[in-house]
Amino acid sequence: MTAVLGISAFYHDSAAALIIDGRIVAAAQEERFTREKHDDGFPKHAIAYCLHEAGLSSSELDYVGFYDKPLMKFERLLETYLAFAPVGFKSFSKAMPLWINQKLHLPREMRSALGGQYKKRFIFTEHHEAHAASAFFPSPFQEAAILTLDGVGEWATASWGFGRGNEINLLHELRFPHSLGLLYSAFTYFTGFEVNSGEYKLMGLAPYGEPQYVDLILDKLIDLKEDGSFRMDLSYFNYCQGLTMTSKKFDKLFDRPPRRPGSEITQQDMDIAASIQWVTEEIMLRAARHVHARTGMTNLCLAGGVALNCVGNGRILREGPYENIWIQPAAGDAGGALGVAAFIWYQLLGHERKAAPGDEQRGSLLGAAYTDAEIQAFLDKTGAVYKHYKDDEALCGSIAEAIAHNKVVGWFQGGMEFGPRALGSRSILGDARDETMQRTINMKVKFREGFRPFAPIILREHVHEYFDMNGQQESPYMLLVTTVRADKRLEHPPELAGTRGLDLLKQKRSVIPAVTHVDYSARIQTVDSERHGLLHRLMERFYEKTGCPVMVNTSFNLSWEPIVCSPEDAYRTFMGSGIDVLCMGHFVLTKPIQPAAAKVVSNAAAGPVLDDKLCSPCCGADLRRYEDERVCAACGNRFGEDGNIPQLFWPHERFGDSGDVTRRVKGFYEETPFPNYNDHDSVRSLIEKSRSGIYGRALDRSIPYNSSVLEVGCGTGQLTNFLGISCRQVIGTDMTLNALRLGEAFRKEHDLDRVRFVQMNLFCPAFKEAQFDVVLSNGVLHHTADPLGGFKRLVPLVKPGGYFIVGLYNILGRLATDLRRQLFRITGNRFRWIDPILRQDGLSSSRQKAWFSDQYLHPHESKHSIGEVLRWFDETGLAFVRGVPSVTPFAEPLDPQDLFASMPRGTALDHFLMQIKQISGGNHEGGFFIMIGRKPFGPTTPPIPGDVLKVSKWD
User: Fold this and answer.
1) Which of 281, 842, 909, 943 has the most neighbouring CB atoms within 10 Å?
2) If residue 50 lies in a helix (H) or strand (E), which one and from where to where?
3) What sign does the dihedral 205-208-209-214 (CA atoms) show?
4) Which domain holds residue 581?
5) Burial state string for 100-124 with b = 16 or more CB within 10 A and e = fewer than 16
6) 268-302, pLDDT tens digit by residue?
7) What DSSP string runs through 717-769?
8) Strand 387-388 and strand 587-590: pairing?
9) What is the DSSP string of 621-648?
């Protein structure tokens, strides 16, 4: 037995793959285990999984290979920096420490990560050599042309050659800095998407636009040759020497700066996307034709990140000279791990290779699998309610029925996919006939841009009935785009004639509208019994029930997370999104009957979820509901509504008093609600803003499902809405009606049906005691006349065992802000650039104004110390949990998985040292600090619901 391990790491999407005696035993990306999207660290979890799958230890490996040559890459980096010096020093200074400390010592790093047990040599292939090996050796061809296209390896950015038997030969290459991958990424950056992960968004946006900038790109940016090679005018780009992809000259060419991420997508963005997509397809086609002319081969293998451009792949198949093409399912850097392992086995060791009729990748279902026993153990530990089906037929019949009734299904079966696509093992499935399904999954499940298309899965034997493919063609890896047959298309209504841009989403384009893009294209996955056994049975049952062999298939994940790996990941995603049904193995869970499922609040402001918690703010008595009013049962005071917002504000100070802080603060926020929503904010942009800091992520991961949450002083309700996206009941309160209206408008637009807003004075709470698992009071008490008094009014609202989170200004951390405030007063609000927030790039003028007003023009604020807040906790009976930042030196950094992990209370000296640190460290956040306390349990109080901690069987 000969075991060969391949590794890709440190650049993008680390992975490991294991080949034993020529058979691909296992392959997986590190991100699936760490839950960090595109994790580029050393893939120790992926390696552990591969070894576990084979029953091997590191010492039993015969060969370990790495997918590129780091010394050659380092040479390229140094030469590039020297060519542009002294420009680019900032980029150079950021890159060098990682190279010097880690990347230049890969044998040491790999030996350490393998536990010191592997004593043999390491083998390094060139980057594009690994890509080419990953494309050819698993393919169904005994000989084929090979084309690799990506950003950059060592020096090569594209290469071509051929494979025959057990050898590959690369004959020519395009070299850095001229790169199709980097060209496409530059436009990804310019249109406001994230480089190395947002390219598929740009591809999906292209059909909404017109390619009107093609001539401009070909005239100014690149000099394209007939063979697909090209040279770029580097004066328009900045990736060689800077931290951005494009230059000011590029901005001038398109008469605008790059789109700010999260801002509105314009028609120009769509036209730019259409233009660069056209150019990319043209380059791919010219290169493919040239390679055919030089090799004479009728089969083509593709790999490299650009090979994930399935629109371009489809054009090569339809318009190119090849009879067959095969694309590596993990075409990006992750596939390099498989490539180097295959290269060692076949080319270096010289083993015979006979191409398999299908391919050697086994549907790319090479990742972790879980048995029914493991799934059941997790579900029982979690307390989930499920139904177990004893056989496949009953299971598939039940799920097919659910999908036919427009339910969104999380499908978790067998081995996890290797590569970026969900291929039927970790998938979200839906009915392709439902014209609302695309919006439902985008907005309520994936929480992402509404323009994003979904792929159809179709029984292979029916593909020619719905799409422009012949009955012999297949696309098992979702890497080809074709068009919907003309007889399955629908005519556009006359009133929608001439529609452009995102308005095209209003059109129902075919009999399978959920998977038909606006240009009638679709990214096909064909399903067959050999590769996709249980999924194939499910689709047969669906076809029998509906007469339709097509379903929606998208990856089983929230859009900011990797595809799920474990039952815990699947359950968390199910509970944190709009998925209706979860099928794991032979176990089926439906959302409404889960103990952790929060009840949906009715669309009216009335309803048991809200009204059962409310009381009269004037007397604390019950409130009786009469149409749009609530009446205090004790004194008869009447309280109205503003839209869906109950107006339960009751003053605690006499209006007109000179010390009426509440009135002054209320008036301030009526004029300047903070923070502002942007007009274009989507659920996705809200999530990205809320998750941008570790505290927001920690709140979301630590507050259990089915918790009741109250945010006091919620402002415009961004955090309230964010926390309510997952399966929780969340109520936001504020005394400022203008701010609450913004939060409520966002809630209604995006159907956040577990969220409500209430106008309330925190000194006169409109809620009964012990109603909430978590009460948040971030940044409001220090704007009141009596912070301790307000604190004492809010603590009783927390259930026994629940948490109170309070955020305040620190007495020392606020010094820098106080000094800036004095300077602004003296200079008439000049020199705003000295504020670190106002120096941020891309901050809109409205947010600049809101931040400046809140920090420097507020009518009242107080400052507090750690010791003072701890005394508040003692007076109200709260047990200290932790501070953010920590209240003691040398404490462990905040774990976003467990915000409520108890930390030491510390001494007065500890508190003093941490507050001294706040003078500089808290400057960016205006000296803000957070303290968390927990109300002790009563003698019979059950604990609040919690999540099962993740334990990997490969750790």
Assistant:
1) 281
2) helix 44-54
3) positive
4) 372-593
5) eebbeebeebbbebbeeebeeeebb
6) 999 999 999 999 999 999 999 999 999 999 999 99
7) -HHHHHHHHSS-EEEEEES-HHHHHHHHHHHHHTT-TTEEEEE--TTS--B-S
8) antiparallel
9) --EEEETTEEEETTT--EE-EETTEEB-
- What CATH number should be reported for the domain holding residue 435? 3.90.870.20
Q: Are 81 and 92 in contact (CB under 8 A)?
A: yes
- Same domain? For 744 and 876 the reply is yes
Neighbours of 495 (CB within 10 A): 8
Residue from 726, 786, 718 nearest 757 by CA: 718
- pLDDT at residue 188, rounded to an integer: 95
Q: Is residue 888 within 8 Å of 865, Cβ to Cβ?
A: no
User: What phi and psi values does residue 721 have, to the nearest 5 degrees?
Assistant: -65, -40
What is the value of pTM for the model shown?
0.84
The DSSP code sequence of 677-707 is PPTT--HHHHHHHHHSSHHHHHHHHHSPTT-
pLDDT in tens, 433-449: 998 898 888 877 887 77
538 and 390 share one domain: yes
Q: How many CA atoms lie within 13 A of 14 on its CB side?
A: 20
Tens digit of each residue's pLDDT (9 = 90 or more) over 602-650: 444 445 567 789 999 999 999 998 878 899 999 999 999 998 899 999 9
Q: Check: CB of residue 675 under 8 Å from CB of residue 721.
A: no
**CB neighbours of residue 898 within 10 Å:** 14
DSSP 219-255: IIIEEE-TTS-EEE-GGGB-TTTSSSSB-HHHHHHTT
CA distances from 361 to 24, 136, 347, 779, 933 (A): 7, 11, 18, 54, 52
Give the whole-angstrom CA distance, residue 305 versus residue 282.
Answer: 17
- Measured CA angle at 413 (ends 303, 442), to 5 deg: 70
Range with lowest mean pLDDT among 389-393, 801-805, 856-860, 888-892: 856-860
C-alpha 747: how far from chain center: 21
| More confident of the two residues 216 and 91 | 216
Identify the helix (H) or strand (E) that includes residue 871.
helix 866-876
CA distances from 587 to 422, 712, 947, 949, 951 (A): 20, 40, 19, 21, 20
**CA distances (Å), 677 to each of 475, 674, 745, 869, 924, in order?**
43, 9, 10, 31, 21
Which structure tokens are listed for 503? 């308005």
146 pLDDT above the threshold of 60 = yes
Judge if 112 and 198 occupy the same domain: no
Could you give the 3-state DSSP secondary structure of residue 407? coil
The C-alpha atoms of residue 484 and residue 466 are separated, in whole angstroms, by 6
Q: Give the Å distances, CA to CA, from 520 to 397, 785, 917.
A: 31, 62, 59
